[in-house]
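SAMPLE LOG
Freezer: B-3
Tube label: C17
Construct: single chain, 380 aa
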Amino acid sequence: MDLVIHSARLVTGGQVTTDAFVAISGDVIAAVGTGQEWAALNAAETVNADGLTLTPGFIDIHGHGGNARSFDDGADSIRSALEVHRSHGTTRSVLSLVTATVDDLVDRVGTIADLAEADPTILGSHLEGPFLDVARQGAHNAELLRAPDPESIERLVTAARGTLRQVTLAPELPGGLDAIRQFADAGVTVAVGHTSVDFDGALEAFEAGASILTHAFNAMNGIHHRAPGPVAAATSSPSVTLEIINDGVHVHPEVVRMAFAAAPGRIALITDAMAAAGSDDGVYQLGSLSVTVTDGVARLTDGNSIAGSTLLLDEALRRAVSDVGIELTDAVTALTTTPARAIGRSSDLGQLAPGFVADAVLLDDDLAVVGVWAAGDRVA
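STRUCTURE (predicted):
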């Protein structure tokens, strides 16, 4: 046995277990138990987690960068950006790419495919664009937005070599429903987002195979009592996961609470982090657009649109518990089990259980990160 973390309050799978231990062999969980049974395992290394909380590693299925770097800017920038997320408990990441030309996106998903082959903590890519509604463009270059077509979809899927995990699109665009089916048939999880679709149109998209709502409440119609919109369509569809950016800016805490209540077990807390996450206020690039970050809030320099976030997932967890009032078990599920299931990895990611990957986070009483392990290795 390589490592045992013992005497912890274990939070996984919606349960809390006291005086628990997790034993790691290589990059997988070998055993989980309670009490002093861990001592007989003769582990090469032990960590006394008395007074600490142990959770699975956090999974971010929607983020664009950090550490003053963007995932759009090549392998070195990706590695640097991931460092800050890893140190804050995110052990697996889907790398989100903003709208660009199809030619550029083909190159970028290919770069991510290369990195994912060597680094299992990189789960693949997420195309947030270019198949978005210009009326809900947010921080995307409107000149590059376009309707989907079969040839472009095939090029992107082929270039990603099985690592295109997610695509966000507006289903009301010409060919939108056919695009959902084509992506889904290729094994890509489809998300509805940056869209003007109504309640019925969203239901139609979910019936066609879409299964995520991209950063719910943002860049879409809100909930009205006579026009409930895509959020209500998502909460009423049991197969749909709702992404939430819980930074106190994108969604009010009370609305976050309502979302957790309306779709229990189907909320995935995401960062939507841009380059400024883990860095300072200032001016940054998000794709081809300039973004100004002031007091940690990112907005387009030429306009008032929110342009991603500076959130890290440990802060999202703390806000969920302290500001929103979500139970710790449910908040941890929204960072682990739910995002893993959303991208089809629930059999090996998102829980601390035998046979699952050895991704773990130790937290103190304030839910601040004090230790991170990814694929069995401790993160600096």
